[in-house]
Design brief:
Elements (H helix, E strand, L loop, with lengths): L2 E6 L3 E8 L8 E3 L2 E5 L3 E6 L5 E6 L4 E4 L2 E7 L5 E8 L4
């Protein structure tokens, strides 16, 4: 429901992630990826071992993120949307 596959081939997977205020995602995995924020956001990521990290993002920001398993909670007051480009190989 929160993830929409936009494009995929043998090298990359591109998906859109949307989450409303005070909603949380299920646990999910990412390969190494780049995110492009489509809206401002204040989110909390939680890894399976219970570690949390909060971040505030601005629309238009792009950043590299290493592979991870986590849940994401939108701790802000507005909906949040991002595009993630995952790298399947290093060819």
């Amino acid at each position: 429901k929160r993830f929409k596959l936009e494009f995929e081939n043998d090298r990359v997977r591109v998906f859109r992630f949307s989450i409303g205020p005070h909603e949380s995602s299920s646990v999910h995995d990412h390969l190494d990826h780049v995110t492009v924020e489509l809206s401002d956001a204040h989110v909390r990521a939680t890894t399976p071992d219970g570690k949390t990290q909060e971040a505030s993002e601005k629309a238009g920001n792009a950043s590299f993120r290493p592979a991870a398993r986590h849940t994401v909670e939108n701790v802000g007051e507005t909906s949040f949307e991002t595009i993630s480009i995952e790298f399947k190989s290093s060819k």
